[in-house]
Amino acid sequence: MKLQRIFDKDEPVGWVHWCPGCKAPHGIYVEKAHPKTKAKWTFDGNQEQPTFHPSIHCYTTNGHWSDKPPHEWVEGPKRTTTCHYFIKKGVLEYCADSPHELSGKKVPLPDYPEAPK
User: Fold this and answer.
1) For the segment 39-59, what is each residue's pLDDT rounded down to a tens digit?
2) Across the strands, what pairs with 84?
C-alpha cells in the first residue's frame, strides 16, 4: 500500500505517504485544507499509482500561532524548503529546490511505511 489515511476527529482529511528523500512521512490534505497552510490538493483516487495536484511543497518557517483568538498560524519572514515534488501516476518527481539527494530525480512512490535502513 502506497498511501495511508489522515484523520481529524474520525473524519478523513487526506493521505500520507513515505518520502524516500526526507526519509519521513508527508501528509497531503484532500478533503479538508491543511490547518496551518490552508493548502488543499486534488487526488485521482488511485491508491497504488496516485496523482495529486498541484505540487507538494514542504517547508519550515519561523512562524508561530497567534496568542489571540482565533489562534491562527502567522508566517514568519523566512521560509526554507525541506522538500518539493509532484506525485504523478505513482512516481515522485522531485523539484530542483529540494535540498536532499533526490533533488531533480524521479523515483517510484514506495510502500508505506518504508522501514528505515
Assistant:
1) 999 999 999 999 999 999 988
2) 57
Q: What is the pTM of this model?
A: 0.80
Left, alpha or beta for 4 (phi > 0: left; psi -120 to 50: alpha)?
beta
Q: Which pLDDT band, with edges at 50, 70 and 90, does 76 fall under?
A: confident
Instruction: Give buried/exposed letters for 11-36 (b at 16+ CB in 10 A, else e).
Output: eebbbebbbbbbeeebebbbeeebee
Secondary structure, 3-state, the chain: CCCEEEEECCEEEEEEEEECCCCEEEEEECCCCCCCCCCCCEECCCCCCCCEEEEEEEEEECCEECCCCCCCEECCCCEEEEEEEEEECCEEEECCCCCCCCCCCEEECCCCCCCCC
